[in-house]
């Protein structure tokens, strides 16, 4: 396990680059397709990750959600759903690359629904705005960043779908994270600075998650990747 910060950062960025390649292949190969069940698509992605990178470990459950299931937060487990012709789907995977975690999420739109396309496009823009705000404020807390992401979402006409907008990321197995440990999350309850060291004296690195929802139309979307690197 790497001890110097430059090596840790490089390995986290490498893990993310591989996850990004995996998602590019998901789209290129049309794995997210009408008529397929969410679990079947998740299994296809699992098999592709194994074929491309030999991945057999993940640091959180594999998620593929479509239609109204995209409203549901991470911890819920909605029933398997068949993807429709004019649907919206998001995937959230946490593969382990050489003992370093990647956490990567993207949204796919099937069909021509302009509102679904707008939501998908807004995801990356709101992520970028949140990252710019983080970069410009050295002492920013989890509470402050969550509030900014929530504001960007509201200005675009969406709501946030979860109680947090990101979390710590690092080596695997990661330091235990649960709902009681608010300092591990970008959440309204976290008044601690995001730029700090952990209990082992290592730099904390963060994932930013943007989960946008339209509860009236009953769909949402998801976008996540590294916040503090790249």
Helix share bin: 25-40%
The 3D shape can be described as: globular
Uncertain residue segments: none
H/E order of the elements? HHEEEEEHHEEEE
Description:
By secondary structure, the protein is of the alpha+beta class. It has 4 helices and 9 strands; from the N terminus they run ααβββββααββββ. Strands 6, 7, 8 and 9 form a 4-stranded antiparallel sheet that branches. A hairpin with a 2-residue loop joins β3 and β4. α1 packs across α2 and α3 runs antiparallel to α4. The protein is globular. The chain starts with a helix and ends with a strand. The mean pLDDT is 91.
Question: Mind sketching the topology for me?
Answer:
Layout (H helix, E strand, L loop, with lengths): L4 H24 L9 H16 L9 E4 L21 E6 L2 E2 L2 E2 L2 E6 L4 H23 L5 H14 L3 E2 L5 E4 L35 E10 L4 E8 L4
Antiparallel strand pairs: 1-2, 2-5, 3-4, 6-8, 7-8, 8-9
For this entry, give a set of tags:
9 strands; 19% strand; 230 residues; alpha+beta
Quick recap:
This protein is an alpha+beta fold and 230 residues long. Helices cover 33% and strands 19% of the residues.
């Amino acid at each position: 396990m790497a001890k110097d910060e430059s090596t840790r950062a490089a390995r986290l960025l490498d893990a993310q680059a591989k996850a990004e390649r995996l998602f590019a292949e998901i789209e290129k190969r049309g794995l997210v397709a009408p008529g397929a069940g969410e679990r079947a698509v998740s299994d296809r992605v699992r098999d592709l990750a194994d074929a491309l990178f030999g991945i057999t470990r993940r640091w959180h459950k594999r998620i593929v959600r479509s239609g109204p299931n995209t409203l549901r937060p991470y911890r819920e487990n909605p029933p398997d759903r068949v993807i429709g012709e004019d649907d919206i789907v998001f995937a959230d995977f946490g593969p382990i690359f050489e003992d370093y975690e990647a956490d990567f999420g993207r949204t796919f739109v099937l069909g021509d629904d302009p509102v679904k396309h707008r939501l998908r496009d807004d995801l990356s823009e709101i992520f970028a705005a949140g990252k710019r705000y983080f970069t410009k404020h050295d002492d920013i807390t989890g509470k402050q960043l969550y509030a900014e992401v929530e504001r960007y979402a509201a200005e675009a006409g969406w709501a946030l779908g979860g109680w947090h907008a990101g979390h710590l990321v690092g080596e695997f197995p990661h330091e235990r994270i649960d709902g009681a440990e608010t300092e591990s999350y970008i959440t309204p309850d976290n008044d601690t600075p995001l730029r700090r060291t952990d209990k082992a004296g290592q730099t904390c690195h963060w994932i930013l998650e943007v989960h946008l929802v339209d509860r009236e139309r009953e769909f949402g979307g998801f976008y996540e990747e590294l916040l503090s690197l790249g």
